[in-house]
Design a protein that fits this description.
The chain contains 16 helices and 13 strands. Strand 2 and strand 3 form a beta hairpin. By secondary structure, the chain is α+β, with helices and mostly antiparallel strands. Helices cover about 40% and strands about 20% of the residues.
Length: about 400
Amino acid sequence: MSSEAAILHADLDAFYASVEQRDDPRLRSRPVIVGSGVVLAASYEAKAYGVRTAMSGGQARRLCPQAVVVEPRMRAYSAASEAVFSVFRHTTPLVEGLSIDEAFLDVGGLRRISGSPVDIAVRLRREVAEEVGLPITVGVARTKFLAKVASGVAKPDGLLVVPPGGEREFLHPLPVRRLWGVGPVTAGRLGRRGITTVGDVAALPESLLVAMLGRASGHHLHALAHGRDPRPVRTGVRRHSMGAQRALGHRDRGDLDAILVGLTDRVCRRLRAAHRTCRTVTLRLRFDDFTRATRGRTLSQPTAETDAVLTAARALLEAAGDLVTDRGLTLLGVAVADLYDDDAVQPPLPFDRAEPTALDGTIDEARDRFGPSAITRGVLLGRDEGPTVPLLPD
């Protein structure tokens, strides 16, 4: 562990809702909900009434009837994300993006040219506010885990520093859910044994945690409860997977095939743009009760062809059967994994390079030249393809 608290976790506050409030002055200081069928984001004014991400739109409006409901604008959010990440990269070359709205920054060694880590964090927040117009919270600590916890505690629009030597004093009073990897099931299992804080976890022998939770989880939680996290901020790491997902309202559930086509089309276009191929296709499902399920299939050959990935995704959706029809589907996602560089894959006979089909290549070229909506699939004509969760580029 470094002797200096030099890792920043920077996290935009209520990102989608904050962009809407920035772009429409009438929405400022008002409760804002992004997404009518399913809540994709809620401003802190709406969160004060109990509105949460992934809640049904109907429930959100009952909790906060005075909220302004807006439809998502994914291009605006992507543009805002790019502008914020430009600020990050001007702050330090060591930036590890976690999602469209958060990143780790390592500012160690910049004291002589940029000031202390706290000075840098203060300036970063000011520059994001002035240049992009968005509030951002920053946690500063010696490890990635502690920096992320600090930003979570400091939200919204805050700055919190965990000083060297003060890690346990900060961490141990926090609820056990603050530990990475502790979800509702694990928290419930621990709670039934009277273990409710991080300090309670830290007081247990590692062997007991392993017996309760399994070897991997036990070791992991024991280390985090004691503030140990040796992972450095990593840059230039290529994605191990790509995906897109869409939250569904009730009106969308009869259009699952069309939605699946749109998601697969977007994912495969990103694959080809990154010169990657995939070997595994995964279907992601979320239901009314917030439970989740995944279904996966391994392809016989790595591919970036839309039709090949779509065929697998359709088969997975059909195999999910009763899950989809009986449990109230609220989110559908497609992900591809086991990624390879497209020129590093052993191709099948007759040893042609793994290139996109002529149709895929032509469509990609037209979209690159005239915009993503220049050409669309027939099944998507006249349909709102809806918001998908964008991923940071490779």
